[in-house]
Amino acid sequence: MTNVTKSRPLSPHLQIYKPIPTMIMSIVHRLTGAALYFGTVLVAWWLIAAATGPAHYDWASWAFGTILGRLVLFGYTWALIHHMLGGIRHFIWDLGYGYEKHFATKLAIANLIGSVVITLLVWAVGYAVRF
């Protein structure tokens, strides 16, 4: 008996599939979910510093105020918004809508564009209110 599957992979791998927006956004959704764990630790650190006293709070505020700190906060903001929009996209699917290929692709692209635009708006409003 000849095994006809010897020359084929046993299961498909990422090299087999052509990346499409829905696949990429699914991967990014998982990555942003993992990044939110790290960002939430930073939020907890900031809250603990605020509760501990002015010296700790000033040090935490200084750390978040550096260029690296602001870059991390910007990334955390984007990850939070992107993950939220991805969750809404999945909720739409859970309701039984949006399975059509073209609509799902447009929704995935809108998820990416929307997360960038909303993140920029949040930071713009934050800076406008700050001064």
UniProtKB/TrEMBL annotation:
- Name this protein carries in UniProt: Succinate dehydrogenase cytochrome b556 subunit
Q: Does the keyword Lipoprotein apply?
A: no
Q: What is its main location?
A: membrane
The source's superkingdom equals: Bacteria
Provide the transmembrane region boundaries.
27-48, 60-81, 107-129
Q: How is the cofactor bound?
A: The heme is bound between the two transmembrane subunits.
Q: Cite the CDD domains for this sequence.
A: SQR_TypeC_SdhC
Q: Which species does this protein come from? A: Pararhizobium antarcticum
Among PANTHER family, the record links this protein to:
SUCCINATE DEHYDROGENASE CYTOCHROME B560 SUBUNIT, SUCCINATE DEHYDROGENASE CYTOCHROME B560 SUBUNIT, MITOCHONDRIAL
A GO CC term assigned to this protein in UniProt: membrane
